[in-house]
Amino acid sequence: MKIANHSVVEMHYTLKDAEGTVIDSSSGGEPLKYLQGVGNIIPGLEREMLDKSTGDKFTAVIPPEEAYGPQNPELIQTLPRSAFGGVEELKVGMAFRAQSTDGQPIEVEIIDIDGDNVTINGNHPLAGVELHFDVEVVSVREATPEEIDHGHVH
């Protein structure tokens, strides 16, 4: 069976950046299961999965625009240390939940501390990154009506 919209797919993958650094991998663990065609994985990889079959192995290079998007400079801000009231010690790399300007929850990371100025980044950690996937299709089956209705694998 070939992968099409509303297929349940199990795959093993290794994700690397353009320099070959491994970012994530299912190797040695359970394969990733997802429902094709409903946005459960990044758009570029979902497109590359179409028409593949069980046993297929391939490499895909996904540009940022088809993954987590480009870096948005508006999501990088410098705030006063007092904006982090209640947190005794701030360190680069710490993550916090915040609200975007439209009221949506986002995760921000401290990327710089300079005296009383704390710079945060609300971009996804993989925004602006070209993603390199090595993929092996483990299995493909038709989704159940319930899986299609719910938009995810059961």
From TrEMBL:
Domain PPIase FKBP-type positions: 6-83
Similarity annotation: Belongs to the FKBP-type PPIase family.
EC assignment: 5.2.1.8
Name of the molecule in the record: Peptidyl-prolyl cis-trans isomerase
Organism from which the protein derives: Microbulbifer aestuariivivens
Pfam families: FKBP_C
GO molecular function: isomerase activity
PROSITE patterns assigned: FKBP_PPIASE
Gene3D superfamilies: 3.10.50.40
Keywords: Chaperone, Cytoplasm, Isomerase, Rotamase
Location(s) in or outside the cell: Cytoplasm
